[in-house]
Specification:
The chain is an alpha+beta fold. 21% of the residues lie in helices and 46% in strands. Strands 1, 2, 3, 4, 5, 6, 7, 8, 9, 10, 11 and 12 form a 12-stranded antiparallel beta sheet that branches.
Length: 211
Amino acid sequence: MKKIIKSALCLAFLTLNTITVSFAEITIDNVFSSLTENKVTTGDFVQEKSSAKIKRPLKSSGNFIFSEDGIVWKTTKPFPSTMAVTKDSIIQTGADGKKSVIDASANDTFKTVSSTLTSLFSGNRSELEKHFTIKNFKADSANWEMVLTPKDATVASALKQVTLSGAVKSSKTSLDGMVSEKSDTEKTKFTFANQVYKQALSADEKALFQK
């Protein structure tokens, strides 16, 4: 359960959508005001977990869905698995199509995760800053980056900081990476590619969030 909640926390930071603003206007407020422009983002991900305890990073890859309904993390390699995170539960779907549901609504850490998801999707900076400190925002003609550090001691025990980053191309900005650090020697890096943006989930995508 603890590992799943931590995974959900990581996923909570994977919900930033494309930011469509000119380079001269890129600020933190521009980022948050642009979060609602695309209701759904899909694409490919590569995840690499590194730790002082292992000799080489553990790598996995697959597809993701970021939406107002929640997040779907569909891993294809090395083993197939699907996990959907909603505001009050985690839904895991096996290769055989069977679902298992974890009700996490009473868990304080999960409540923080859910609140973060909501604030990111709504572009609500003030709600996000109830739980996290936004640090070291920077942008130039090619890239942008920001760091989030948790304020809650329980969350901080599982997550030291999260770094979000993306590219600036032709006056458009995308979320292309995230690094989640549990400690100085233990971190998880996500790389995103082939993003597609749309305004609604398909029927099959929406079904992944149904219990």
